[in-house]
Design goal:
Strand 27 and strand 28 form a beta hairpin. The chain has nine helices and 28 strands. Helix 1 runs antiparallel to helix 9, helix 2 (253-265) crosses helix 5 (354-369) and helix 5 (354-369) crosses helix 6. With 505 residues, it is of the alpha+beta class.
């Protein structure tokens, strides 16, 4: 379909003859040509040949400039072609000659879009790569901006705005991750920022993003087993497999507990334990010694332990050691402050101490829902903290011994991102075991990793941070599995972590 803009002057009685002018197409891109044609009518003796001038008015100027001239044909027609760089208007004028009157057309507007010339420079297009995209805008638009856009369900959306340099060019290197595997479409668009040109859009760049070699290695390690894997960095996922499948976390629950404790209490928090009595006469304690402030079996164990230590030191203790609410009217005879929470968490997480976990979960529960601290309150406090960061887990204890607990690798990595963005994040990472330490004593030697293991019958887990040599940065990962002997699950986990450390990025 041919689009054209036409203008003509209409002859009145005794006035100049009618002159028409048509521009086709009415809008062009810099570098293209516009065809201008028309004719002069009325008196057959004045049709031609006679001189005709093509004049140009560049927006937003009011001045007209003659750019070329020609002669009309014998039938009064004429034509020109031109390649303007800027938007404006054309008109033709014919001077009076002999007995022929002067004539001219009305202005015809022609829009000129900028030329957005974009190209892609890449040696490979795999997930994790960052190819260079170069763009030049013509005519010169130095100091202005050009938008890198990507299609979404709502249309083309700007993902980055680039400033054009002194040569009216710009470059960017967008990185593509796991979610980009497949075909990615991009374009560059100059939005109108002056009156000289219309907006312009470059060609659509279609990029096929393939899996990186290290991703294929993880695929091979996992095979068809019931293993979920998530790897993420700086808020973006680098690899995902069955990442939303609910799985039993085992002692990865302690990782969630540690996060909630650090966020709620702070790394420097010390736990105060009181020894109290109702009566003290002549240096002799009358009545029961009350130790701690928690209920249920771990606290009873602590009371029995204290009793034995007192007796070994020659202190007579009457009554049966136990746990419960302290009676009224007690007076402290001794207090002790624990190590800072950061040290307690290291003592819990590295060897995966269930006793520590349940007692600390009760502390968290007491702070959140009031005394007495219970396992149920502790689990509820962890669930509340997790939900507050947009993750939905089913949690029923603090240690991970419950087979009813359910988490996802995707959610764990998202919570590790929360830790990374928090002041206590480095404290948590330091509290976890590294290769050759704690529950990783016989695993991952020589790998810069900080992670929490998890083990129950038929269940295995490993989540935390691994250092990527290529990126020189920590990245978050989570691996949860079921239905395999522990040695097979651990071998898969270690293979994934080593693959990440050596190749990812």
């Amino acid at each position: 379909m041919l689009l054209a803009v036409a203008a003509s002057s209409t002859a009145e009685a005794g006035g100049p003859p009618t002159t028409s002018l048509v521009a086709s197409p009415p809008v062009i891109t810099v570098g293209d040509m516009v065809q201008l044609s028309g004719s002069i009518g009325e008196d057959p003796s004045c049709l031609g040949p006679r001189p005709v001038q093509l004049e140009w008015q560049q927006a937003p100027s009011a001045a007209w400039t003659t750019i070329t001239s020609s002669d009309t044909a014998a039938d009064g027609t004429f034509s020109f072609s031109d390649g303007p760089q800027y938007s404006g208007a054309y008109r033709v004028t014919l001077a009076a000659v002999g007995g022929c009157l002067a004539a001219g057309s009305d202005p015809v507007a022609v829009g000129v879009r900028v030329l957005v010339d974009s190209s892609l420079i890449a040696s490979s297009l795999t997930a994790g790569s960052c190819p260079t995209i170069h763009v030049t805008v013509s005519p010169d638009k130095s100091g202005q901006n050009v938008d890198l856009q990507r299609p979404t369900g709502a249309g083309w959306q700007t993902v980055e705005t680039l400033a054009l340099d002194a040569s009216s060019s710009a470059s960017t290197s967008p990185c593509f991750g796991w979610d980009d595997i497949g075909v990615v479409r991009l374009r560059l668009r100059w939005t109108q920022q002056d009156q000289l040109n219309d907006a312009g859009i470059g060609i659509v760049l279609a990029l096929r993003i393939e899996k990186a070699d290290w991703m294929r290695r993880i695929d091979h390690l996992v095979g068809g087993r019931a293993v979920s894997v998530s790897v993420g960095s700086a808020g973006s996922f680098l690899y995902q497999r069955a990442d939303t499948e609910p799985r039993i976390p085992a002692s990865n629950e302690k990782l969630l507990l540690s996060m909630a404790l650090l966020d709620s209490l702070g790394p420097g928090r010390r736990i105060v334990t009181h020894a109290a009595t109702a009566s003290l006469q002549g240096g002799v304690i009358q009545g029961n010694v009350v130790n701690g402030r928690f209920t249920r079996e771990p606290e009873a164990f602590a009371a029995r332990s204290l009793t034995k230590q007192l007796e070994r030191r020659g202190v007579a203790v009457v009554g049966r050691a136990g746990a419960g609410e302290p009676p009224e009217g007690l007076a402290d005879v001794a207090t002790i402050r624990s190590r800072p929470l950061r040290s307690i968490l290291a003592a819990m997480d590295r060897p995966s101490d269930n006793f520590f976990a349940e007692v600390l979960a009760k502390l968290l529960g007491a702070k959140s829902a009031g005394l007495p601290g219970t396992i149920a309150k502790g689990a509820a406090a962890i669930r509340e903290w997790v939900a507050g960061h947009g993750v939905d887990f089913s949690l029923y204890d603090g240690s991970g011994l419950s087979y009813a607990n359910r988490v996802t690798t995707r959610g764990i990595v998202q919570l590790l991102w929360v830790a990374d963005a928090s002041t206590w994040g480095p404290v948590l990472r330091q509290a976890l075991a590294t290769g050759g330490q704690g529950t990783l004593e016989n695993r991952l030697h020589g790998v810069k990793v900080r992670a929490k293991t998890g083990s129950l019958d038929g269940v295995s887990a490993l989540s935390g941070w691994v250092w990527l040599d290529k990126e020189e940065a920590w990245t978050e990962f989570s691996i949860l599995s079921r239905g395999m002997p522990k040695w097979i699950a651990s071998s898969i986990e270690d293979g994934i972590v080593r693959t990440l450390a050596d190749n990812a990025g």
